[in-house]
Amino acid sequence: MKNQAKSGAIKEIRLRWLILGQLVTWIGSSFIWPLTSVYLNKQLHVSLTVIGLVLASNCIASIVTSLLAGKCFDRFNPYPLIVIGIGLSTLTLYLLAAFHGWPAYWGWMIITGLLSGWNGTLINAIGTSLKRYSSRYVFNILYFAQNLGVVIGTIGVGYLYDFSITWLFILAASLYLMAFVNAIWHYRPISQFHRRRQAAVRQGQQHQQAIMPKINLAMILGLFTALAVTWLMYMNWESNLSVYMVSLGIPFHRYSLLWTINAAIIVLVQILLARYPHLFRRLFWQIIFGLVMFSLSFVTLMFAKDFPHFVLSMVILTAGEATAFPAIPAFVNELTPLANKGKYQGMSLVASSIGRALGPVVGGVVIDRQGYLALFIVAAMAIFLMIILLLPLYHFCRRRLTWFK
Q1: Do 322 and 309 sit in the same domain of this protein?
Q2: Comparing 364 with 175, which gets the higher pLDDT?
Q3: Helices (DSSP H) in 335-371: which residue ranges?
């Protein structure tokens, strides 16, 4: 295997500040997305069909800016890009607090989708610039911060929603304001990373760092395909499974409890992976383990008829989520040249967003035509086919891959 070294030490953003930004923005985001459907339907009397269009437009908007942000990261100074992005998110949420009627809410959801794709891609891309830690550690710890934010946010949103939705939006905006101040003060070192890239261009070194080896690209496309398919099936846990559980006589609040279990296990797994970063010898095998767990979770759903069995399926699913999802962008980072890291981190988020957008639709079609058992079989087989795709692809590519640390 070939290795491209990066020489020349430069000052980096401290990982703690990147984690803080990730944590507070995800707490703020988790105040918004869980209540959107309930708020629009129960208080603004918007139909479920239109709500589906609102959520889909939010997702499509994030896809567009994920691609754009990745390309901008590679070409321009990332410091003003991330500061402006978080600043606009803060302003948008304060405006949402003031004007959250219909159809204004739809417009704000499109804008927040645009900004979430922009900021999410830039945070991941900035994570690739940190050389003090391995990419495996950086992406594991960022995923940990993200899910800790989801835990805190989803626990708090139920209580705050009953108190005042306006103050809930204000609190979310204030958390983004904290992230904005954090970015202004602590993300400035990323400008040095950009100047280093510019110097490489002037010295004629960037050409070598800009070439994406074809064998690397083949491996990356395989990973993106697996990521999109996995998200497509995983989204049925968030959308269609609640109806299935209620139809079995299981109260809805127990379905909500499953997601508390999910978030808690993710946090625990990320702590374990942070403590033992080489628990998996290679990132590829961490991804394969995660996909096996994803597939197995749908196999167990075929036999789940009571709550304890759904808990078992959720534990298996979460083991897959906590290992595969942070490992894929970390692996992509190691396969990506310096000049293209933002582009491919953006494409990673695009693959996730495509799966998230199509998942409930595909699941609904399968359920309407063949039932829930057919959905579980299709999901298990689809993810298993991704394993069948990746194993021979990696075996064919691994000795010819070029690694960019």
Answers
A1: yes
A2: 175
A3: 341-370
